[in-house]
Amino acid sequence: MSDNAKSDARTDVVLVGAGIMSATLGALLRLVEPDWSITLVERLDAAAAESSDPWNNAGTGHSALCELNYTPQKPDGTIDIAKAININEQFQVTRQFWTYAHENGILTDVRSFLNAVPHVSFVQGAEHVDYLRRRQETLIRNPLFASMEFIDDPDEFARRLPLMAEGRDFSVPVALNWTEGGTDVDFGALSRQLLAFGTAQGMDTLFGHEVRDLDQESDGSWTVKILNRRTGEKRRIRSKFVFIGAGGGALPLLQKAGIKEVKGFGGFPVSGQWLRTNKPELTGRHHAKVYGLAPTGAPPMSVPHLDTRVITGKDWLLFGPFAGWSPKFLKTGKVTDLPLSVKPDNLLSMIGVGLTELSLLKYLIGELLQSFGDRVNTLRQFAPTAQGNDWEIDIAGQRVQVIRRDSKKLGILEFGTTVLAAADGSIAGLLGASPGASTAVPAMMEVMQRCFPGDYPGWEPKLKEMVPSLGSKLSDEPRLFAEVWDHGTKVLGLQSRSDAAGVV
């Protein structure tokens, strides 16, 4: 690529950000269009160093097995599982792609990023136990959740979760929804393998380079203005298509691009902290991702959970998240990120959220006032005998929650993942947080479908080879689900530690 800023280098695709989204899209595009030129631009000196880094996220393969916020109780007492089904369906697409990628030499080291860890919901108190029973009874009617167990027997609880049982007063009723077929995912290691494949297939990678501006040309292409953060050198790249997978940095870049689709959108940054330990006497007595109920008034991403994590081959326990606050949109961002994101077109949205989300504000203030001892006390709801000197604080990544206008033109806070694409399909970006990385494959296929409507039909046979269920709902096709699930479990080596037969 030319070092002369005056002469524009040309490429078919520019990917901004070296996290899981760009890595996934780059691999998918390379597989369907092996001759396209692709350039990846990353402001940091390493891949997956922001949101995709394993210490900056929960590492949960989100499939709505344990996350209670995806199965709310309706006023009539029934359990709404529509969102849970949708999230699980998306993860099935991701899992099938990983299976194909391993079989075809794209993901060579599965264990470095994917491990079988049961997904568990945990509640206390008679009312919540009743809810969990009804949740399981409702979910198991769907093939995707058919193996979920309901456990309220203290002895069985203790057998499965010895660390959580030790010192517990079982006179307070407790219950679990237990699913063996859950996963722990190191999205950093996964991103690096996908990027290595892309690079081996000719993708140009520019680390330590920051996108400073984007201008659309009269022919619909984009001029991407880039700064080398090490040398100060400027360069420009002309591209037919730009994808902005820059985590919290996506919103400011979409704003700079000036596409009308971003108007009205804002972002609210929330940081997080975890308690963590790798002491074998603790990690050896807990093998599960155990999610509880969110505190009253707290946002969904604040649900406390005690998780087995496998990072660089070592077992860890993480507990949290505890919310923090910073105006930065990235962990390595600037304190001006939030104020500079406020524009005339999203000012009302931002004010609206300030007026409607007072409970969130109260929750954040409460979290910020907590001491280390307060956090250990919260942990004791899960592990009653927890000692502070066994645990340390780890700072997680920044999450920018999506703010969008509602029908009243006021702002509402959205907890999810949103693909924004220009009407002409020349540029797209991803906003939002959880379930985020777990839905990378279906989200990037959505980008391909929306941005390349002329090419997509020709890609479908290849995409269906990668994801056999593409275009189908596995909920409605139990036989197909059993087939792709069993095949994926075998190829990815996801048999559980107990090697339970017939798990979903």
Keywords:
504 residues, single chain, alpha+beta, disordered C terminus, 31% helix, eight-stranded mixed β-sheet, FAD/NAD(P)-binding domain, disordered N terminus
Secondary-structure blueprint:
Layout: E1 9-16, H1 20-32, E2 38-42, H2 82-103, E3 114-116, E4 119-124, H3 126-139, E5 149-151, H4 154-160, H5 162-165, E6 174-179, E7 183-185, H6 187-200, E8 204-207, E9 209-216, E10 222-228, E11 234-244, H7 250-257, E12 266-277, H8 280-283, E13 289-291, E14 305-311, E15 314-324, H9 337-341, H10 347-356, H11 358-368, H12 372-379, E16 392-395, E17 399-405, E18 411-414, E19 417-421, E20 427-432, H13 440-451, H14 456-466, H15 478-491
Parallel strand pairs: 1-2, 1-11, 2-8, 4-13, 11-20
Antiparallel strand pairs: 3-7, 4-6, 5-6, 9-10, 10-11, 12-15, 12-16, 12-17, 13-14, 14-15, 17-18, 19-20
Helix pairs in contact: 1-6, 1-13, 2-15
